[in-house]
Amino acid sequence: MNTIEFFINNKQNFLNELFDLIRIPSISRHKDSVQTAANWLENKLRQTADYVEQIPTTGNPVILAEWEPQYLEISASSHPTLLFYGHYDVQPPEPLDEWISPPFEPEIRDGRIFARGIGDNKGQFFAHIVAIECLHKLNQLGVNIKLILDGEEELGSPYIDEAISKKQEFFEDVDLVIVSDGPADPTWKPTLEFGARGIITAQFELQTAKGDVHSGNFGGIQPNPVWDLISILKTMKDDQGKCLIEGFYDDVFTPTPAALKAAEDLNRDPEVYKEQLDITYFGEEKDLPITHRLMFRPTFNIRGISSGSVRENARTIIPKEVVAELDIRLVPNQVPEKIKQLVTEHLDRLKSESENYAQILERCEVNFGTSFYPMFTPLELPWTEVLAKSITEGFEEEPLKIPLAGGSLPLYSLYKATGKPIYIIPYAQPDEDNHAPNENMMVEWFEKGVKTSIAILNNLKG
After folding, report:
1. CATH of 198-252+298-372, one of 3.30.70.360, 3.30.70.270, 3.40.50.620, 3.40.50.2000
2. Where are the domains of the chain?
3. Rounded distance, CA 215 to CA 212, Å?
Protein backbone atom coordinates (compact mmCIF):
# COMPACT_ATOMS: atom_id res chain seq x y z
CA MET A 1 0.00 0.00 0.00
CA ASN A 2 1.38 3.42 -0.89
CA THR A 3 1.03 6.52 1.28
CA ILE A 4 -1.83 8.11 -0.65
CA GLU A 5 -3.84 4.88 -0.49
CA PHE A 6 -3.23 4.71 3.25
CA PHE A 7 -4.51 8.26 3.61
CA ILE A 8 -7.66 7.64 1.54
CA ASN A 9 -8.43 4.46 3.46
CA ASN A 10 -8.10 6.28 6.78
CA LYS A 11 -9.45 9.69 5.77
CA GLN A 12 -12.59 9.51 7.88
CA ASN A 13 -10.60 8.64 11.00
CA PHE A 14 -8.33 11.64 10.39
CA LEU A 15 -11.35 13.91 9.89
CA ASN A 16 -12.88 12.63 13.12
CA GLU A 17 -9.68 13.52 14.97
CA LEU A 18 -9.62 16.96 13.39
CA PHE A 19 -13.23 17.48 14.46
CA ASP A 20 -12.30 16.55 18.04
CA LEU A 21 -9.63 19.26 17.96
CA ILE A 22 -12.02 21.78 16.43
CA ARG A 23 -14.55 21.18 19.22
CA ILE A 24 -12.06 22.62 21.71
CA PRO A 25 -12.81 26.39 21.67
CA SER A 26 -9.20 27.50 21.91
CA ILE A 27 -9.87 31.24 21.64
CA SER A 28 -6.57 33.00 22.23
CA ARG A 29 -7.56 34.79 25.45
CA HIS A 30 -9.35 31.75 26.94
CA LYS A 31 -6.34 30.18 28.61
CA ASP A 32 -8.09 27.09 29.97
CA SER A 33 -9.47 26.10 26.57
CA VAL A 34 -6.15 26.82 24.89
CA GLN A 35 -4.42 24.59 27.43
CA THR A 36 -6.96 21.84 26.74
CA ALA A 37 -6.15 22.07 23.04
CA ALA A 38 -2.42 22.00 23.79
CA ASN A 39 -2.86 18.84 25.87
CA TRP A 40 -4.92 17.22 23.11
CA LEU A 41 -2.24 18.01 20.54
CA GLU A 42 0.55 16.75 22.77
CA ASN A 43 -1.23 13.42 23.17
CA LYS A 44 -1.89 13.21 19.44
CA LEU A 45 1.70 13.97 18.47
CA ARG A 46 3.10 11.46 20.97
CA GLN A 47 1.50 8.68 18.91
CA THR A 48 4.20 9.06 16.24
CA ALA A 49 6.76 11.74 17.15
CA ASP A 50 10.14 10.99 18.70
CA TYR A 51 10.01 14.17 20.76
CA VAL A 52 7.08 16.30 21.96
CA GLU A 53 7.10 19.11 24.51
CA GLN A 54 4.89 21.95 25.61
CA ILE A 55 7.03 25.03 26.21
CA PRO A 56 5.43 27.24 28.87
CA THR A 57 5.46 31.00 28.26
CA THR A 58 4.12 34.09 29.94
CA GLY A 59 1.07 33.49 27.76
CA ASN A 60 -0.12 30.27 26.13
CA PRO A 61 2.16 27.26 25.60
CA VAL A 62 4.09 26.66 22.39
CA ILE A 63 4.26 23.03 21.26
CA LEU A 64 7.36 21.47 19.70
CA ALA A 65 7.61 18.04 18.06
CA GLU A 66 10.21 16.16 16.04
CA TRP A 67 10.26 13.03 13.87
CA GLU A 68 13.56 11.39 12.99
CA PRO A 69 14.01 9.59 9.64
CA GLN A 70 13.02 5.95 9.59
CA TYR A 71 15.66 5.07 7.01
CA LEU A 72 18.37 4.03 9.41
CA GLU A 73 20.99 3.63 6.69
CA ILE A 74 20.82 7.34 5.89
CA SER A 75 22.93 9.49 8.19
CA ALA A 76 21.31 12.50 9.83
CA SER A 77 23.57 14.89 7.90
CA SER A 78 22.64 13.65 4.43
CA HIS A 79 19.13 15.06 4.14
CA PRO A 80 17.36 18.33 4.96
CA THR A 81 15.51 19.15 8.15
CA LEU A 82 12.10 20.70 7.56
CA LEU A 83 10.23 22.83 10.10
CA PHE A 84 6.45 23.20 9.85
CA TYR A 85 4.75 26.13 11.61
CA GLY A 86 1.09 26.40 12.60
CA HIS A 87 -1.07 27.90 15.32
CA TYR A 88 -3.78 26.23 17.37
CA ASP A 89 -5.44 29.32 18.84
CA VAL A 90 -8.50 30.75 17.09
CA GLN A 91 -10.47 33.96 16.77
CA PRO A 92 -13.63 34.54 18.83
CA PRO A 93 -16.72 33.31 16.95
CA GLU A 94 -18.93 36.40 17.38
CA PRO A 95 -21.41 37.37 16.05
CA LEU A 96 -22.93 34.02 16.93
CA ASP A 97 -26.30 34.71 15.34
CA GLU A 98 -24.67 34.79 11.89
CA TRP A 99 -23.46 31.19 12.09
CA ILE A 100 -25.59 28.62 10.29
CA SER A 101 -24.28 25.86 12.57
CA PRO A 102 -22.59 26.15 15.99
CA PRO A 103 -19.01 27.46 15.51
CA PHE A 104 -17.34 24.75 17.59
CA GLU A 105 -19.44 21.85 16.34
CA PRO A 106 -17.95 21.06 12.92
CA GLU A 107 -20.45 20.27 10.21
CA ILE A 108 -19.92 19.26 6.59
CA ARG A 109 -22.25 20.96 4.11
CA ASP A 110 -21.81 20.97 0.34
CA GLY A 111 -18.32 19.52 0.64
CA ARG A 112 -17.15 22.11 3.16
CA ILE A 113 -16.29 21.79 6.84
CA PHE A 114 -17.84 24.72 8.73
CA ALA A 115 -16.30 25.59 12.11
CA ARG A 116 -14.26 28.26 13.83
CA GLY A 117 -10.56 27.55 13.35
CA ILE A 118 -10.92 24.98 10.56
CA GLY A 119 -9.15 27.15 8.00
CA ASP A 120 -7.29 29.39 10.41
CA ASN A 121 -5.39 27.32 11.26
CA LYS A 122 -6.23 23.87 12.64
CA GLY A 123 -7.24 22.24 9.38
CA GLN A 124 -4.12 23.46 7.62
CA PHE A 125 -1.47 22.39 10.13
CA PHE A 126 -3.36 19.16 10.82
CA ALA A 127 -2.87 18.28 7.14
CA HIS A 128 0.89 18.24 7.84
CA ILE A 129 0.40 16.03 10.88
CA VAL A 130 -1.75 13.61 8.87
CA ALA A 131 0.86 13.43 6.10
CA ILE A 132 3.60 12.68 8.62
CA GLU A 133 1.48 9.99 10.27
CA CYS A 134 0.71 8.32 6.94
CA LEU A 135 4.40 8.08 6.07
CA HIS A 136 5.32 7.05 9.60
CA LYS A 137 2.77 4.21 9.72
CA LEU A 138 4.30 2.78 6.53
CA ASN A 139 7.85 3.28 7.78
CA GLN A 140 8.56 5.71 4.94
CA LEU A 141 9.75 8.86 6.70
CA GLY A 142 12.97 9.80 4.95
CA VAL A 143 13.64 13.29 6.28
CA ASN A 144 13.96 14.93 9.65
CA ILE A 145 10.75 16.84 10.47
CA LYS A 146 10.12 19.43 13.14
CA LEU A 147 6.91 21.16 14.11
CA ILE A 148 6.15 24.31 16.09
CA LEU A 149 2.57 25.17 17.06
CA ASP A 150 1.90 28.68 18.35
CA GLY A 151 -0.79 29.32 20.95
CA GLU A 152 -1.24 33.06 20.45
CA GLU A 153 -0.87 33.89 16.76
CA GLU A 154 -4.23 35.65 16.76
CA LEU A 155 -2.84 38.05 19.38
CA GLY A 156 0.34 38.73 17.43
CA SER A 157 2.45 35.88 18.85
CA PRO A 158 3.75 38.01 21.75
CA TYR A 159 5.56 35.13 23.48
CA ILE A 160 6.82 32.92 20.66
CA ASP A 161 10.31 34.44 21.00
CA GLU A 162 10.25 33.54 24.69
CA ALA A 163 9.50 29.91 23.84
CA ILE A 164 12.12 29.77 21.08
CA SER A 165 14.77 31.21 23.40
CA LYS A 166 14.23 28.27 25.79
CA LYS A 167 14.87 25.71 23.03
CA GLN A 168 17.31 27.38 20.66
CA GLU A 169 19.06 24.10 19.91
CA PHE A 170 15.80 22.72 18.46
CA PHE A 171 16.03 25.17 15.56
CA GLU A 172 19.76 25.07 14.83
CA ASP A 173 19.71 22.32 12.17
CA VAL A 174 16.60 23.49 10.27
CA ASP A 175 17.12 23.91 6.51
CA LEU A 176 13.77 25.38 5.48
CA VAL A 177 10.48 26.44 7.05
CA ILE A 178 6.98 25.87 5.64
CA VAL A 179 3.90 27.70 6.86
CA SER A 180 0.40 26.75 5.71
CA ASP A 181 -1.86 29.61 6.69
CA GLY A 182 -4.24 32.06 5.06
CA PRO A 183 -6.31 31.49 1.92
CA ALA A 184 -5.00 30.55 -1.50
CA ASP A 185 -5.05 32.99 -4.41
CA PRO A 186 -8.43 34.48 -5.48
CA THR A 187 -8.02 32.69 -8.83
CA TRP A 188 -8.48 29.38 -6.93
CA LYS A 189 -5.09 28.17 -8.07
CA PRO A 190 -2.69 26.60 -5.56
CA THR A 191 -0.19 29.07 -4.22
CA LEU A 192 3.49 29.16 -3.32
CA GLU A 193 4.32 32.36 -1.45
CA PHE A 194 7.83 33.57 -0.70
CA GLY A 195 7.17 35.87 2.22
CA ALA A 196 4.71 38.27 3.74
CA ARG A 197 4.40 41.94 4.49
CA GLY A 198 5.01 43.03 8.05
CA ILE A 199 2.67 45.09 10.17
CA ILE A 200 2.50 47.77 12.85
CA THR A 201 -0.73 48.72 14.59
CA ALA A 202 -1.30 52.04 16.33
CA GLN A 203 -4.10 53.59 18.35
CA PHE A 204 -4.80 57.34 18.57
CA GLU A 205 -7.11 58.29 21.43
CA LEU A 206 -8.08 61.95 21.69
CA GLN A 207 -10.29 63.31 24.48
CA THR A 208 -10.95 67.03 24.19
CA ALA A 209 -13.54 67.53 26.96
CA LYS A 210 -15.00 65.89 30.05
CA GLY A 211 -18.27 64.94 28.35
CA ASP A 212 -20.47 65.02 25.27
CA VAL A 213 -22.36 68.30 24.89
CA HIS A 214 -25.30 69.73 22.91
CA SER A 215 -23.98 70.77 19.50
CA GLY A 216 -26.24 73.83 19.45
CA ASN A 217 -25.59 75.11 22.95
CA PHE A 218 -21.83 74.64 22.80
CA GLY A 219 -21.08 74.53 19.07
CA GLY A 220 -18.26 76.92 18.29
CA ILE A 221 -16.74 76.60 21.77
CA GLN A 222 -16.09 72.97 22.58
CA PRO A 223 -13.53 71.42 20.21
CA ASN A 224 -14.64 68.49 18.11
CA PRO A 225 -12.15 65.63 18.61
CA VAL A 226 -13.12 63.94 15.32
CA TRP A 227 -12.24 66.96 13.19
CA ASP A 228 -9.11 67.54 15.25
CA LEU A 229 -7.87 63.97 14.82
CA ILE A 230 -8.72 64.02 11.11
CA SER A 231 -6.52 67.11 10.78
CA ILE A 232 -3.63 65.14 12.32
CA LEU A 233 -4.21 62.05 10.17
CA LYS A 234 -4.41 64.14 7.00
CA THR A 235 -0.80 65.22 7.54
CA MET A 236 0.27 61.57 7.19
CA LYS A 237 -1.15 60.73 3.76
CA ASP A 238 -1.98 62.68 0.61
CA ASP A 239 -4.92 62.37 -1.76
CA GLN A 240 -2.96 60.11 -4.12
CA GLY A 241 -2.31 57.51 -1.43
CA LYS A 242 1.31 58.44 -0.67
CA CYS A 243 2.42 58.39 2.95
CA LEU A 244 3.77 61.83 3.90
CA ILE A 245 5.79 60.74 6.94
CA GLU A 246 9.39 61.71 6.29
CA GLY A 247 11.61 58.67 5.62
CA PHE A 248 8.69 56.23 5.36
CA TYR A 249 9.80 54.87 1.98
CA ASP A 250 13.57 55.14 2.49
CA ASP A 251 14.18 51.44 3.14
CA VAL A 252 11.58 49.92 0.80
CA PHE A 253 13.23 47.00 -0.99
CA THR A 254 13.81 46.66 -4.72
CA PRO A 255 12.22 43.40 -5.93
CA THR A 256 14.58 40.89 -7.52
CA PRO A 257 14.21 40.17 -11.27
CA ALA A 258 12.68 36.78 -10.45
CA ALA A 259 10.15 38.42 -8.09
CA LEU A 260 9.21 41.00 -10.71
CA LYS A 261 8.76 38.29 -13.34
CA ALA A 262 6.62 36.22 -10.97
CA ALA A 263 4.44 39.26 -10.28
CA GLU A 264 4.13 39.94 -14.00
CA ASP A 265 3.26 36.29 -14.68
CA LEU A 266 0.29 36.59 -12.31
CA ASN A 267 -1.29 38.76 -15.02
CA ARG A 268 -3.62 40.50 -12.59
CA ASP A 269 -6.65 42.10 -14.23
CA PRO A 270 -7.71 45.32 -12.43
CA GLU A 271 -11.30 44.86 -13.56
CA VAL A 272 -11.48 41.47 -11.82
CA TYR A 273 -10.57 43.14 -8.52
CA LYS A 274 -13.19 45.83 -9.05
CA GLU A 275 -15.84 43.20 -9.64
CA GLN A 276 -14.69 40.99 -6.76
CA LEU A 277 -14.59 43.87 -4.26
CA ASP A 278 -17.50 45.83 -5.76
CA ILE A 279 -15.39 48.99 -6.04
CA THR A 280 -15.25 51.62 -8.77
CA TYR A 281 -11.80 53.05 -8.03
CA PHE A 282 -8.57 51.97 -6.34
CA GLY A 283 -6.95 53.33 -3.21
CA GLU A 284 -3.36 53.79 -2.06
CA GLU A 285 -0.59 54.73 -4.55
CA LYS A 286 -2.63 55.31 -7.67
CA ASP A 287 0.40 55.79 -9.95
CA LEU A 288 1.76 52.27 -9.40
CA PRO A 289 0.74 48.92 -10.98
CA ILE A 290 -1.77 46.76 -9.14
CA THR A 291 0.72 43.95 -8.40
CA HIS A 292 3.21 46.41 -6.90
CA ARG A 293 0.57 47.86 -4.61
CA LEU A 294 -0.50 44.39 -3.50
CA MET A 295 2.99 43.05 -2.78
CA PHE A 296 5.94 45.38 -3.10
CA ARG A 297 4.72 48.57 -1.43
CA PRO A 298 3.87 49.43 2.18
CA THR A 299 0.40 50.69 3.12
CA PHE A 300 -0.89 53.18 5.67
CA ASN A 301 -4.43 52.20 6.59
CA ILE A 302 -7.06 53.56 8.98
CA ARG A 303 -8.75 50.37 10.10
CA GLY A 304 -11.42 52.01 12.23
CA ILE A 305 -12.68 55.19 13.90
CA SER A 306 -15.11 55.36 16.80
CA SER A 307 -16.80 58.48 18.19
CA GLY A 308 -20.24 59.75 19.08
CA SER A 309 -23.25 57.87 17.73
CA VAL A 310 -24.80 57.36 14.31
CA ARG A 311 -27.80 55.89 12.47
CA GLU A 312 -30.67 54.97 14.77
CA ASN A 313 -28.65 56.09 17.81
CA ALA A 314 -27.63 59.48 16.36
CA ARG A 315 -27.63 62.48 18.72
CA THR A 316 -26.96 66.17 18.05
CA ILE A 317 -23.80 66.34 20.15
CA ILE A 318 -20.18 67.29 20.07
CA PRO A 319 -18.52 64.06 21.25
CA LYS A 320 -15.92 64.23 23.97
CA GLU A 321 -13.52 61.73 22.44
CA VAL A 322 -12.48 59.78 19.37
CA VAL A 323 -10.42 56.63 18.90
CA ALA A 324 -8.75 55.81 15.58
CA GLU A 325 -6.73 52.69 14.88
CA LEU A 326 -4.19 52.25 12.11
CA ASP A 327 -2.45 49.29 10.59
CA ILE A 328 0.71 49.91 8.59
CA ARG A 329 1.82 47.08 6.31
CA LEU A 330 5.58 46.90 5.77
CA VAL A 331 7.69 45.42 2.99
CA PRO A 332 11.17 43.87 3.21
CA ASN A 333 13.94 46.08 4.64
CA GLN A 334 11.44 48.17 6.61
CA VAL A 335 11.91 47.75 10.36
CA PRO A 336 8.89 48.14 12.66
CA GLU A 337 10.85 49.98 15.35
CA LYS A 338 12.15 52.51 12.83
CA ILE A 339 8.70 53.15 11.38
CA LYS A 340 7.31 53.68 14.89
CA GLN A 341 10.07 56.21 15.50
CA LEU A 342 9.31 58.01 12.23
CA VAL A 343 5.63 58.31 13.20
CA THR A 344 6.62 59.68 16.61
CA GLU A 345 9.03 62.19 15.06
CA HIS A 346 6.32 63.30 12.61
CA LEU A 347 3.97 64.06 15.49
CA ASP A 348 6.73 65.92 17.34
CA ARG A 349 7.36 68.08 14.25
CA LEU A 350 3.66 68.93 14.07
CA LYS A 351 3.79 70.15 17.66
CA SER A 352 6.69 72.47 16.89
CA GLU A 353 5.19 73.78 13.64
CA SER A 354 1.68 74.64 14.81
CA GLU A 355 0.18 75.75 18.09
CA ASN A 356 -3.12 74.19 17.01
CA TYR A 357 -1.48 70.81 16.40
CA ALA A 358 0.39 71.11 19.68
CA GLN A 359 -2.85 71.67 21.61
CA ILE A 360 -4.48 68.66 19.94
CA LEU A 361 -1.52 66.32 20.44
CA GLU A 362 -1.13 67.42 24.04
CA ARG A 363 -4.42 65.63 24.74
CA CYS A 364 -3.91 62.75 22.30
CA GLU A 365 -2.58 59.41 23.54
CA VAL A 366 -0.73 57.34 20.95
CA ASN A 367 0.05 53.67 21.56
CA PHE A 368 1.63 51.12 19.25
CA GLY A 369 0.40 47.53 19.34
CA THR A 370 1.14 44.45 17.25
CA SER A 371 4.23 44.44 15.07
CA PHE A 372 5.59 41.79 12.70
CA TYR A 373 8.68 42.13 10.55
CA PRO A 374 8.25 41.63 6.80
CA MET A 375 9.98 38.57 5.34
CA PHE A 376 11.07 37.65 1.83
CA THR A 377 12.70 34.49 0.45
CA PRO A 378 14.43 34.82 -2.94
CA LEU A 379 12.69 32.84 -5.64
CA GLU A 380 16.05 31.77 -7.05
CA LEU A 381 16.78 29.27 -4.23
CA PRO A 382 16.71 25.54 -5.17
CA TRP A 383 13.86 24.78 -2.74
CA THR A 384 11.50 26.63 -5.11
CA GLU A 385 11.61 23.87 -7.71
CA VAL A 386 11.11 21.09 -5.13
CA LEU A 387 8.12 22.80 -3.51
CA ALA A 388 6.49 23.80 -6.82
CA LYS A 389 6.80 20.19 -8.01
CA SER A 390 5.25 18.91 -4.77
CA ILE A 391 2.31 21.34 -4.93
CA THR A 392 1.70 20.29 -8.53
CA GLU A 393 1.57 16.65 -7.42
CA GLY A 394 -0.79 17.39 -4.52
CA PHE A 395 -3.18 19.76 -6.30
CA GLU A 396 -2.72 18.35 -9.81
CA GLU A 397 -2.09 21.91 -10.97
CA GLU A 398 0.99 24.12 -11.12
CA PRO A 399 1.05 26.73 -8.35
CA LEU A 400 1.14 30.46 -8.74
CA LYS A 401 4.38 31.91 -7.40
CA ILE A 402 3.55 34.96 -5.29
CA PRO A 403 6.61 36.93 -4.08
CA LEU A 404 4.86 38.46 -1.05
CA ALA A 405 1.59 37.57 0.63
CA GLY A 406 -0.60 40.46 1.65
CA GLY A 407 -1.22 39.31 5.21
CA SER A 408 1.28 39.29 8.08
CA LEU A 409 2.60 36.35 10.07
CA PRO A 410 5.20 35.93 12.86
CA LEU A 411 7.77 34.79 10.29
CA TYR A 412 10.63 36.91 11.57
CA SER A 413 10.76 34.96 14.83
CA LEU A 414 11.21 31.75 12.82
CA TYR A 415 13.84 33.40 10.64
CA LYS A 416 15.77 34.67 13.67
CA ALA A 417 15.74 31.17 15.14
CA THR A 418 16.76 29.33 11.96
CA GLY A 419 18.31 31.82 9.54
CA LYS A 420 16.77 29.75 6.76
CA PRO A 421 14.24 30.40 3.96
CA ILE A 422 10.53 30.46 4.75
CA TYR A 423 7.74 29.49 2.36
CA ILE A 424 3.97 29.85 2.67
CA ILE A 425 1.74 27.21 1.07
CA PRO A 426 -1.94 27.82 1.91
CA TYR A 427 -4.19 24.76 2.05
CA ALA A 428 -7.46 26.69 2.51
CA GLN A 429 -9.48 27.85 -0.49
CA PRO A 430 -9.88 31.59 -1.22
CA ASP A 431 -13.34 31.92 0.36
CA GLU A 432 -12.53 30.26 3.67
CA ASP A 433 -13.99 33.26 5.57
CA ASN A 434 -11.35 33.13 8.26
CA HIS A 435 -12.09 35.49 11.18
CA ALA A 436 -15.74 35.67 10.01
CA PRO A 437 -18.93 33.73 10.76
CA ASN A 438 -19.22 30.44 8.88
CA GLU A 439 -15.49 29.96 8.51
CA ASN A 440 -14.96 26.90 6.37
CA MET A 441 -12.50 24.64 4.57
CA MET A 442 -13.35 22.47 1.60
CA VAL A 443 -12.78 18.77 2.27
CA GLU A 444 -11.19 18.52 -1.17
CA TRP A 445 -8.65 21.21 -0.28
CA PHE A 446 -7.83 19.47 3.01
CA GLU A 447 -7.20 16.27 1.03
CA LYS A 448 -5.02 18.12 -1.48
CA GLY A 449 -3.13 19.68 1.42
CA VAL A 450 -2.35 16.26 2.88
CA LYS A 451 -1.24 14.98 -0.54
CA THR A 452 0.95 18.04 -1.02
CA SER A 453 2.62 17.54 2.37
CA ILE A 454 3.25 13.90 1.53
CA ALA A 455 4.80 14.97 -1.78
CA ILE A 456 6.99 17.57 -0.07
CA LEU A 457 8.34 15.01 2.39
CA ASN A 458 8.96 12.45 -0.35
CA ASN A 459 10.63 14.92 -2.69
CA LEU A 460 12.86 16.38 0.00
CA LYS A 461 14.31 12.97 0.83
CA GLY A 462 15.19 12.73 -2.73
Report:
1. 3.30.70.360
2. 3-196+374-460, 198-252+298-372
3. 9
Going from the C-alpha of 443 to that of each of 91, 109, 452, the distances in angstroms are 21, 10, 14
pLDDT computed for residue 303 by the predictor: 94
Burial code of 342-353, b = ≥16 C-beta within 10 A, e = fewer? Answer: bbeebbeebeee
**Nearest partner of 300 among 226, 210, 367, 200, judged by Cα:** 200
What kind of architecture, by CATH, is found in domain 3-196+374-460?
3-Layer(aba) Sandwich (3.40)
pLDDT higher than threshold 90 for residue 202: yes
- The yes-or-no verdict on residue 76 having pLDDT over 60 is no
Binning pLDDT at 50, 70 and 90, where does residue 73 land?
very low
Q: What is the pTM of this model?
A: 0.88
pLDDT tens profile 299-311: 999 999 999 999 9
Q: What is the mean pLDDT of residues 208-228?
A: 94
- What size, in residues, is the chain? 462
Dist CA 38 CA 88 (whole Å): 8
